[in-house]
Amino acid sequence: MTYIPDPEAIPALTDLRLKPPTGGGKPSPRRARKAEAALVRAEEAVRRTTTQTGPPLVAVETDAAPHVRLGLLWATLTVGFTAAGEAWLAGWLAVVAGVAAGQLSHGWRRKGARPIQGVAMLSAAAMPLAALAGADAMTGVVVATVGATLAVRLVLATGPSIGKPTRDVAFTLAAALPAGVAAASPVLVRGIGLTETLVFLSMVFAYDAASYVVGTGSGGPWEGPVAGAVATLPVTLVVAAVLVNPFTGSSPLVLGLVAMLAAPLGQLGAAALAGDVDAPALRRLDSLLLAGPVWAWAAASLLR
Q1: In this structure, are residues 116 and 153 in contact, taking their beta carbons and an 8 Å threshold?
Q2: Strand, helix or coil at 59?
Q3: N or C end of the chain, less CB within 10 A?
Q4: How far apart are the first and last CA of the chain?
Q5: What is the rounded distance in angstroms from the CA atom of residue 271 to the CA atom of residue 158?
Q6: pLDDT tens digit string along 143-200?
Q7: Cα 17 vs. chain centroid, distance in angstroms?
Q8: CB 214 within 8 A of CB 231
Q9: Cα 211 to Cα 264: distance, rounded to the nearest angstrom
Q10: What angle do CA 78, 82, 87 make, to 5 degrees?
Q11: Are 13 and 38 contacting, i.e. CB atoms less than 8 angstroms apart?
């Protein structure tokens, strides 16, 4: 909600009448000049208020997107595909990653950059699918993405329209790799087990929900991430108290700490990556950008 003042709700100050002296008669010239100067200063203050962000006189909703409902839908579908099986989850996240890479590429192209959108989308979508075969297969997709981007850009760099090949390759990889790795991480965790994946998603979704609810109404940029980190504590404590198997020893605390620290850094990275480009699919993956691969690696090391 953004609030702007309504100038029509404020009466014209020049129409206000001076109260005559209690003793009757006209005010002295000196007093009249002072009153007129005060009115001019007040009217100038009102004029500045109507052109700047001011008090909440009139509420204007500038963003009508149903963020809460979209977040709930995203969480419900992701948990549902997780329960359905590893292949279902990989297919769902492949779609999300491909859309995120496509939105980034499209937005950057409108601003003058020239990422290879098709390569970015295919590469991002391929990473969750490759994660079905493990981390080594994912690494192969990353290497193939770099090679395919260079090859396609070399083919396109013909004639006078060579452009800026290095910049184009960098934008293509920036659109493909973060989204692809973030989407592939839950698939890697799903290869460890269903319980582990549900715990991972619970931590991330708890962070996302608290960060959004508190962050949208906060006065500082740090309040949302702090609220999100605090919201992962109950999940961590429940896992440590109830799910002793497979979460033995200090593993719940270590994994909870990873989610607390890495999720906000992922959000920060996604914001820096997208800038003012509209990429709602990337917003669904932003908390996974760093927390996903680190949590998957930590879980594979602690729980196997």
Answers
A1: yes
A2: strand
A3: C
A4: 47
A5: 34
A6: 999 999 999 888 877 655 566 778 889 999 999 999 999 999 999 999 999 999 999 9
A7: 53
A8: no
A9: 9
A10: 110
A11: no
Which residues are CB-neighbours of 97 under 8 A, at least 6 positions away? 124, 125, 127, 128, 179, 180, 182, 183, 184, 281, 285
Of 95, 296, 94, 289, the residue nearest 190 (C-alpha): 296
- Chain centre distance of CA 264: 10
CB 16 within 8 A of CB 39: yes
State the DSSP string of 203-227: HHHHHHHHHHHHHHT-SSTTHHHHH
Q: How far is CA 88 from the centre of its chain?
A: 25
- Torsion, Cα 274 278 281 284, to 10 degrees, reads 70
Please, how many CA atoms are within 13 Å of residue 219, restricted to the half-sphere of its CB?
A: 0
Query: One-letter amino acid identity for 25?
Result: G
Q: Which two tokens stand for residue 303?
A: 């729980």
Contact call for residues 182 and 97 (beta carbons, < 8 A)? yes
Can you give the three-state secondary structure of 224-241, one letter per residue? Answer: HHHHHHHHHHHHHHHHHH
User: 41 is written with which tokens?
Assistant: 């200063």
Please list, in sequence order, all residues whose beta carbon lies within 8 angstroms of the beta carbon of residue 302, skipping any fewer than 6 positions away.
Answer: 249, 251, 254, 255
